[in-house]
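Minutes, project huddle
Topic: does the predicted pose make sense with 1-O-phosphono-alpha-D-glucopyranose bound?
PN asked that the exact inputs be recorded in the minutes so nobody has to dig through chat later. Recorded below.
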Amino acid sequence: MKIKKAVFPVAGLGTRFLPATKAMPKEMLPVVDKPLIQYAVEEALASGIEQIIFVTGSGKSALEDHFDTNRELERILKEKQKDTLLRSVQSIVPESLNIVYTRQSKPLGLGHAIWCARDIVGDEPFAVLLADDLLQSEVPPLYQMINEFDRLRSSMVAAMEVPSEETHKYGIIDPGLEIGGTVQVVNMIEKPSPKEAPSNLAVIGRYILTPRIFKHLERHQKGAGDEIQLTDAMSALLAEQPIFGYKFKGKRYDCGDKVGFQVANMAFALERPEMREELIENLRDLVG
Ligand code: G1P
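Predicted holo structure (tokens), as shared on screen:
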């Protein structure tokens, strides 16, 4: 039961980043010099994923082009002997990777987006990656989770403690027994107020799901924000199968948020030796 397929829901409107996202998918916003979606795809590749399933919506052609060959650009880079740049554009999609696109015709929520991939996923466990959650770590977080999945053979979500006043932004776990960073999920609630939240342990955008989830998504039951929520389907799945929260090792940047996105840019730029010093000088100037 190797995890070979990963679903990337990329049909969101990105309203929080308007006007930047008027004609460009939010997943194409760059962190330093790479679009957000490429970080998530690289994480999937480094975790052994062989097939990527993009669930897109209208106005996402820039994303499709990014993961396609650009012959004209490659020809020019070759002519100008810009070898490093040439390699950087050629290596975006390794030959071993298979990419499939499907459409979510209506923005009915994350649960609905995953359901749109059901026929492509078929009857095997699969991963879900939300590109908004940019993770930085030595060992790719999805790889860490796949290792844990090999041991537990159950659905799993990446989990992280968040400030109690922010529970309304996340799926929140009602935690049971915890052993070595892996927490038994007793229940899950989508975006509860701090008062309703059973804990401050939040779901971060990496999932490994058994195909049984599609039975629950099929009901198209609406939840928080009047959307079909993955969290609700997982909560229903709990009646049949265990689910675990996995406290991954690494940092997380919330790139669905303007401040989080800027912080991510700074953090990733500071890691680049060729940018670091100049950036620190400029930051000092700016802060005064
Ligand atoms: C989604 C999920 C939520 C999860 C979050 C992680 O929410 O519905 O359960 O905690 O991603 O980033 P969104 O951020 O799309 O509103």
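Observations noted during the meeting:
- The chain has a mean pLDDT of 95.
- The radius of gyration is 19 Å.
No decisions taken; revisit at the next huddle.
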